[in-house]
Each structure stands twice: as C-alpha cells, then as structure tokens.
Amino acid sequence: MHIAIAGNIGSGKTTLTSLLAKHFKWEPNFESVDDNPYLHSFYEDMRRWSFNLQIYFLNSRFRQIVTIRESGQNVIQDRTIYEDAFIFAPNLHEMNLMTSRDFDNYRSLFELMVSFIQPPDILIYLRATVPTLVSQIQKRGREYEESIRLDYLKSLNERYEKWINEYTDGKKLIVNVDNLNFADKPEDLGVIIDKINAELHGLF
Asked: What digits encode the pLDDT tens for the residues 2-15?
C-alpha cells in the first residue's frame, strides 16, 4: 500500500510522515532535502537553477515511486510527484523564473513518467494558511529557507487548492493543520489517525 502526504513548504509533511510511519508501522519515504545538490543554489538564484531543481525532484520522485511499488511494503511518502508538476514548476514558469522552453520540456518528461506509475492509494493533503507556514518554516530554522517570500508561499497555496480540488486519481484526505499541533499533541495526531483509519477501512 502506498500512502502519500502532500502540502506546501512548512505544512508539516515530514513530521506527519514520521509520526504515521511509527503508529501504523509503515515504511517512511522522505523527500531528499539535505543531499539535494540544487536547493541552496535555487534559493540564491531561482531563475538560473529552477529547471535543474525541478528535474532533480522529478527524477528523485519517480525513482521513489518505482521502488515503493517494487518493495511490496506499506509505504508512506513525504510529498508526491504531482506537486512538482502541477504546483512548483508552473508557478516558477508563471513567475518568469523558468523559461517556456524548459517548462514544456519538463511537462513532456513528467507526462511520460506518470504514464508508467500508479497514483497513491490514499493522498493526504495538509492545508495550511500562509501565517502557519511561515511560523513552521521559522521554527525549523533552515538557513536557505530564510529568503522565501510571502507572495511565493501564497502563490503556491493557491495552486495547491486548485490542484487538490481537481484531484481525481485516487482517494484523498484533506487535513486542516492551522488548528492542529500533531507534532506535540497526541490528541491532535489521533484526529488524523482516526480519519486515515476510516479511509483505510473503506479501501479494502
């Protein structure tokens, strides 16, 4: 079984992935951040490195999905391949931080890749307002994220909402995280676990 968690920067994907993996005894599959060779450069010069970064993520995510399906294990994945293609890449293109030539090339590659993979059995979307995102980004204190602009987060949020409303590839579960502190409050985590259990029992 493949569970995937989607959400904007700072929405709590990695934290929730860890907590749910521990609770359900699922194998966690994390987004590669610390060993990403383009991330720091991207935040320093988005126009120069946007295409390189998105191709790196696309390749990494595709490999993850292939590995997940071949493993035969119950896996929970931190971020999906769809977010790169429907949110981050088109947002960079619209902001003139990725050329149309690069964006068309990227989308063509994405469309080819997704023709070979299955969507997750359940997609969990973490919905958060910009103030919540900013608070959580500041709390984790990654140096390269200090330059993220509010209008960038807002634009991403708008794209996330459009994408999740139109997502029909499989089961989806939307969790509003503004008033939940699942990292520190077991009862808040329990709310999410109950929702997942309801979806899981409906899956089989």
From this structure: 999 999 998 999 99
178 labelled catalytic: no
Residue count of the chain? 204
How far apart (Å, rounded) are the C-alpha atoms in residues 142 and 152? 17
What pTM was computed for the model? 0.88
Q: What is the amino acid identity at position 114?
A: V
Considering the candidates 34, 35, 45, 78, report the single residue annotated as catalytic.
Answer: 78
List the domains of the chain with CATH numbers. Answer: 2-203 (3.40.50.300)
Take residue 5 and report the two structure tokens written for it: 């968690």
- Alpha helices by DSSP H, the chain: 13-24, 39-44, 46-71, 81-83, 89-94, 100-114, 130-140, 150-166, 186-203
79 vs 75: CA distance, rounded Å:
12
